[in-house]
Amino acid sequence: MTPIIEKLLLVQHHDCELMRLERELSDIPAHRQAIEGRLEEHRAALARAKEELRSKQAAIKEAELEVETCRGKIRKLREQQMQLKSNKDFRAMEEEIAGVDRNIRTLEDGMLELMELVEAAQARIRQLDAELKEEEARVHREVAALEQRAQDLRTRAEAARQERARAAAEIEPERLRQYERILEHHRDRALVPVENGACGGCHMKLPPYQCHEARKQATVVLCEFCHRMLYWPEPLAGPATSRS
Fold first, then answer.
1. How far is CA 5 from CA 19, 192, 221, in A?
2. DSSP class of residue 101?
C-alpha cells in the first residue's frame, strides 16, 4: 500500500471516529428530552388526580348546600303547615315534605359515595406523589449520566480532532482538499477498497482498467460512478508454515 493511501486511511479513521462521536453527541438532547418527558407524564398524572379530587370535593360541597336548602324548605313547609285549616291541605303539605325528605336521603347517599371516591382519590394522589418522587430521583441520575456521557464524548472528540490534525499535516494540501471534498459529499468514507472487482462504496462493478490501476497503486484512482478514492486492500496474512 502506498504511503499516500496509508496516510489518507489514517485521516479517514479519525474522521469516521469524529463523525460517530458527533452523531452520538447530537442524539443526547433527544435522549434527555425523552427522559424528562417521563417525568412530565408523572406530573401530569398527579395533576389530573388532584383535579379529580377537587371535582369530587366540590360535588360534596354542592350536595351539602342542596341538603341544607332542602332542610330549610322543610322548616318553612312545617311552619306553613301549622297554619292550614283543612286535613286535605295538611296531607298535601305532608306529601310535599316527604318528597323533599326523600330528596335529602338521595343527596346524602350520593354524598357517601362521593366521600368514598374522595378517599380513593386521596390514596391515589399519595401513590402518585411517591411515584413522582422516585421518578424525579431516577431522572436526576439519568440526566447526570447523560451529561457525563456528553462531556466524555466532547473530550474524546477533541482528542480525535487533534490526532486527525497531526495525521492531515502529513498529506499534501491539494490531495487533502480532494479527500475532504469527497468526504463532505458522501458523509461516510472518501477512501474505499476494491472488493471483488467492485467499488467498496457504491458497490458498482468497476471497469478492468480501474481495478488494474488501483492494484498498481501508482496514483490515486477515483471510482467512475461515485468518485470515491479507491485502494487495493492488503491481503490477509496467512498462518506461518515451516518446511521440513
1. 20, 10, 11
2. H
Query: What's the CA gap between 157 and 22, in Å, rounded?
Result: 7
- The answer for residues whose C-beta is within 8 angstroms of residue 137's C-beta and 6 or more apart is none
What is d(CA 238, CA 145) in angstroms, rounded to the nearest whole number? 45
SS3 170: coil
Half-sphere exposure in the Cβ direction for 160 (13 Å, CA) = 19
d(CA 191, CA 226): 11
The number of residues in the chain equals 244
Distance CA 14, CA 18 (A): 6
- pTM of the predicted structure, to 2 decimals: 0.69
> What is d(CA 175, CA 160) in angstroms, rounded to the nearest whole number?
21
Q: Are the C-beta atoms of 73 and 22 separated by less than 8 Å?
A: no
For residue 46, which of 118, 129, 139 has the smallest C-alpha distance? 129
Could you report the per-residue pLDDT of 96-131, keeping only the tens digit for each? 999 999 999 999 999 999 999 999 999 999 999 999
139 neighbors 36 (Cβ within 8 angstroms): yes
What DSSP element (H or E) covers 233? none
Rounded to 10°, the helix 87-168/3-81 angle is 170
Alpha-carbon distance 13 to 10, whole Å?
5
Q: Which three cell numbers stand for residue 171?
A: 498529506
Span 142-168, pLDDT tens digits: 999 999 999 999 999 999 999 999 999
CB atoms within 10 A of CB 45: 15
Please give the Cα distance from 10 to 29 (Å, whole number). 31
Q: Return the SS3 of 193.
A: strand
Q: Give the span between the Cα atoms of 36 and 221, in whole angstroms.
A: 50
